[in-house]
Design goal:
alpha/beta
Length: 191
Amino acid sequence: SFSFRQVARDTLMVLDHLRIDRVKGIGLSGGGIALLHLATAAPARVRSMVLVSAPPYFPDQARAIQRQSSPAMMSAFDMELMHQRHTYGEPQIDKLFAYSRAMADTYDDVNFTVQDLSTITAEALIVFGDRDPLYPVSIAFELHRAISHSYLWVVPNGGHGPVFGDAAPAFSKTALSFLRGDWRPQPGQLS
């Protein structure tokens, strides 16, 4: 069965095979969870990371939504995005919804403690929407407090994955600058 922890292990094996010592990464939602696993399992291997809508645990509201995960819950626009991003069609999309429903009752794979998160040595840019229906913005503040070298960007009126649409240009510019190491927050921009 799928686990984010296993994704991190597999990533480490690929990095070893390619002889890559340290990485910089961007992870959105589940990709961010996998990046959290990588950064806690092998802190020295992650130089910097951008975590977008990536929770350290699934709150009850997310579990309730995940248990009902289906195409019927999605707007026509969101389903069109699903089809654009997942090019293997309906079978792939159906598996993603089934996976989301199964994750609702998983408690060991996405359950980072403050102590776990405090082992992260990478610089982190944490990006959350203030209107994410799955993960309340308070989770972003928890992550920010637990990861010592982190910056927090709360996107006003942003939902889950608040880096698309109108926010995409600002996100791309900020994330790339952050990962290059030449970015620093402007006063009032991020905490």
